[in-house]
Amino acid sequence: MKKILIANRGEIAIRVMRTAKKMGIKTVAVFSEADRNSPHVKYADQAVCIGPAPSNESYLRGDKIIEVSKSLHVDGIHPGYGFLSENADFAELCEANDILFIGPRSKAIRVMGSKLAAKETVKAYNIPMVPGTDEAITDIPKAKKIAEDIGFPILIKASAGGGGKGMRIVENEAEFESQMDRAISEAKNAFGDGSVFIEKYVASPRHIEIQIMADMYGKVIHLFERECSIQRRHQKVVEEAPSAVLTPELREKMGQAAINVARSCDYIGAGTVEFLLDENLNFYFLEMNTRLQVEHPVSEWIAGVDLVELQIKVARGEHLSLKQEDLKINGHALELRVYAEDPMNDFLPSVGNLDVYKLPEGKNIRVDNGFEQGMDIPIYYDPMLSKLITYGDTREEAIELMIKAINDYEIKGVETTLPFGRFVCEHDAFRSGDFDTHFVKKYYSPSLLEKQEHIEAEIAAKIALKHYLEEQKILRIPN
Ligand code: MV4
């Protein structure tokens, strides 16, 4: 593999190119008209404009990306996350054009993209699943009987959904039919596929995911778990590895289950198997994400691997040389997603210009960034600016360093989720490790953030005053 094209933008495009360069592989960036001056364009060896700002006219144009790849003699395409990364048709188009798609084969993407097909596929592998139906519901009275057997509340999920899209809680049997009707028509509208199924609703779960890596010769390893329960409306905010609640035995069990999920679909490359973990530490398979994830750096840090390097190696046919028994967890890593969103105003995108943009630096701090000072933040894409990742020998150290690094950011021009990240890191429930997916809903409100900012401003003012008075003393000493 001599040259790869990165079909993405922002921090992940740069992150992939960094590893490609390390491996001596040439890089091609693609960009939209809104991203002409973006860092990922400058960072690449070659760059090609593929269309206007809207994603469906640029970063989602698989046909154009293939065309560019052919004319520049690209060997492989790395899709990053989002955009075309889980588009089975695009992976197939790459296969048909003899360009390596750096990811699983299109078949695995297609199976895991359908939640019902995924359940069907993993069934033979003894993977724990939430009680529910495993076929699309066509007979509503029959489904209602099943719901009564399972016990309310239940959850209706769209087969073509995922990541929380197309879900509906049904509290009791009285509302079953109406919710079912709505769920089906919603699914039809949103995904063009009205297939829905039901599951018992797990009320206070943690969201634990396992990173896996597979080569094309049937070897599959796992790189431990990530705890992703700190999320807001299905948008993860803080992720960490390892989880504060897994025992080595449970980790081993979940790791093996994840490996089996990968085996069930002949998976190749990096993938993530999502589980729910209930209060009694029972785990249930939810879905598999067939791409590199935003939060992959926390796994890289504790496992001591470069996941993009492994992706490229297995894509070009190398054997995985890592052995499961040689892998172990070292220390603790945390990631905060820094969004240009206003935590005081319902996390509305805060568009504008990055008048000041200075990033924290130092030992055990990693910032995966896609922006630079002076840039406008385009309104067309996800408003994530960068990811702040910190590491420590212990969870406490990683948290303390996260707070320090948050304070070392200097951003003017837009509001960001940095103060919200500090709120999470300072919260007792987070620090104790005793939290679930309802953390934000349960504990966060803008007024609490205001209070915290106020206290911090007061402390800062007091420190400044003390300095001032001390300086005055010094100045008053006569010569
Ligand atoms: C669930 C659940 C409770 N019970 N399934 C949301 C994302 C999608 N992957 C599945 N999700 C959930 N499925 C059952 N049977 C609760 C969620 C859920 C959730 C899961 C992970 C992380 C955050 C979440 C927030 C709300 C709901």
SSE layout and pairings?
Layout: E1 3-6, H1 10-22, E2 26-32, H2 39-43, E3 46-51, H3 62-71, E4 76-78, H4 88-96, E5 100-101, H5 106-113, H6 115-122, H7 140-150, E6 154-162, E7 165-170, H8 176-191, E8 196-200, E9 206-214, E10 220-232, E11 235-241, H9 248-264, E12 269-277, E13 283-289, H10 296-303, H11 307-315, E14 332-339, E15 341-342, E16 348-349, E17 356-358, E18 365-369, E19 384-392, H12 395-408, E20 410-412, H13 418-426, H14 428-432, H15 439-443, H16 446-476
Parallel strand pairs: 1-2, 1-4, 2-3, 4-5
Antiparallel strand pairs: 6-7, 6-8, 9-10, 9-12, 10-11, 11-14, 12-13, 14-19, 15-16, 17-20, 18-19
Helix pairs in contact: 4-5, 12-13
The protein binds ligand MV4.
Domain ATP-grasp: 119-316
InterPro entries: Acetyl_CoA_COase_biotin_COase, ATP-grasp, BC-like_N, Biotin_carboxylase_complex, Biotin_carboxylation_dom, Biotin_COase_C, CPAse_ATP-bd, PreATP-grasp_dom_sf
Keywords: ATP-binding, Biotin, Ligase, Magnesium, Nucleotide-binding
Q: What's the name of the CATH homologous superfamily of the largest domain? A: ATP-grasp fold, B domain
Number of E-state strands? 20
Q: What's the main sheet like?
A: 8 strands, antiparallel
Summarize the amount of helix as a percent range: 25-40%
Q: Under CATH, the topology of the largest domain is which?
A: D-amino Acid Aminotransferase, Chain A, domain 1
Number of domains: 3
- Which class of the largest domain in CATH terms? Alpha Beta
**Order of neighbouring strands in the sheet with most strands:** 13-12-9-10-11-14-19-18
Task: Give the overall silhouette.
Answer: globular
Structural class: alpha+beta
Terminal CA distance: 72 Å
Bound molecules: ligand MV4
Contiguous low-pLDDT stretches (5 residues minimum) are none
What's the mean pLDDT score? Answer: 95
Q: Helix segment count? A: 16
CATH architecture classification name of the largest domain: 2-Layer Sandwich
Rg calculated over all Cα atoms: 24 Å
